[in-house]
TrEMBL record:
<dbReference type="InterPro" id="IPR029058">
    <property type="entry name" value="AB_hydrolase_fold"/>
</dbReference>
<dbReference type="InterPro" id="IPR050266">
    <property type="entry name" value="AB_hydrolase_sf"/>
</dbReference>
<dbReference type="Pfam" id="PF00561">
    <property type="entry name" value="Abhydrolase_1"/>
</dbReference>
<dbReference type="GO" id="GO:0016020">
    <property type="term" value="C:membrane"/>
</dbReference>
<comment type="similarity">
    <text>Belongs to the AB hydrolase superfamily.</text>
</comment>
<keyword id="KW-0378">Hydrolase</keyword>
<dbReference type="GO" id="GO:0016787">
    <property type="term" value="F:hydrolase activity"/>
</dbReference>
<protein>
    <recommendedName>
        <fullName>AB hydrolase-1 domain-containing protein</fullName>
    </recommendedName>
</protein>
<dbReference type="InterPro" id="IPR000073">
    <property type="entry name" value="AB_hydrolase_1"/>
</dbReference>
<feature type="domain" description="AB hydrolase-1">
    <location>
        <begin position="27"/>
        <end position="165"/>
    </location>
</feature>
Length: 299
């Protein structure tokens, strides 16, 4: 699979980009989740026809992209202006958005701000991220910031690993095998010495506070207002934790699919990383969605 790789210059450094496919083809932007990289989409990318022009982004502090300047807390919204910078750099007026986890959540915010740009949207297992996009109360909201500044040295430090230790760390954190962990690490390992590495992931993403005490209905109204054709692909293993009737994800998907015939929800056997481990389980539905010429009501 032939990939092109380049950097987008930004005031604090570089944003790393990958692309595959016909540059004149239908544009598709793929955005990963928390503490990940563009590599998470490589198994899926192999199954998407080259007639689509797919661009994958490493969000700042992930993969090969430079982190945001030190000293600041990273909010859950912080990826949205990065998506905008990338879209402006590419000169796209309209495109299809594919996001995983936090990438899904940020895509929903982006589509709410720029509805005419997002032609279609695919949200890969958004439930876990949506569950944390809102602080339940002000005390919880404040605690995120207090935690960061009380433990600043922890989030500002860079631990070194051997290759084996890095592999074990990824395997312990995610339900994937060694081959898949190699894919994950392919853009995240930075060599610091003989068999010594650091992970390029910005530890500040472990906090990413949400907005303060907004009701679930706020997000339901915000994310559904523009009737963007959307495909939700949800992992069955996550059902008990993030896809119950009380969860924002279920309320949002139910509302959107009831109000908009161009919104579909499918369930796939697998875990949160099913797009990495078993993309073949949903590729037919995904390609049907990408190929569909939806009729969208005017705003």
């Amino acid at each position: 699979m032939e990939l092109k790789e380049w950097n987008l210059k930004v005031p604090w450094g570089n944003i790393a980009l990958l692309s595959r496919g016909n540059t004149s083809g239908e544009p598709v932007l793929l955005v990963h989740g928390r503490l990940d990289s563009a590599a998470t989409f490589l198994p899926l990318l192999k199954l998407i026809p080259a007639k689509y022009y797919c661009v994958l982004v490493d969000l700042p502090g992930n993969g090969k992209s430079d982190p945001f300047p030190k000293g600041m807390v990273l909010s859950r919204f912080i990826g949205v202006p990065i998506i905008d910078l990338v879209v402006q750099h590419l000169g796209w007026e309209q495109f299809t958005y594919i996001g995983h986890s936090l990438g899904s959540e940020q895509g929903m915010f982006y589509a709410s701000i720029y509805p005419k740009r997002v032609k279609k949207a695919v949200y890969l297992d958004p439930g876990p991220s949506l569950e944390y996009c809102n602080a339940v109360n002000y005390k919880q909201f404040f605690k995120s910031y207090q935690n960061f500044y009380d433990n600043y040295h922890k989030y500002d430090s860079e631990r070194e690993y051997t290759k084996e230790q890095a592999m074990r760390s990824v395997l312990n954190a995610r339900a994937i095998n060694e081959e898949e962990a190699e894919i994950v690490l392919s853009r995240c390992l930075v060599q610091t010495g003989p068999n010594l590495y650091r992970l390029s992931w910005d530890r500040r993403y472990k906090i990413t506070p949400g907005f303060n005490s907004l009701p679930q209905q706020f997000y339901i109204d915000l994310f559904s207002q523009h009737r963007t054709p959307s495909l939700f692909i949800c992992a069955s293993v996550m059902t008990d934790l993030y896809y119950q009737q009380s969860n924002l994800s279920v309320k949002l998907m139910s509302h959107m699919s009831e109000e908009n015939k161009n919104v579909n929800v499918i369930w796939v056997e697998g875990g949160h990383d099913v797009h990495l481990t078993n993309p073949e389980r949903f590729i037919n539905e995904l390609l049907m969605f990408l190929d569909n010429d939806f009729v969208i009501s005017k705003l």
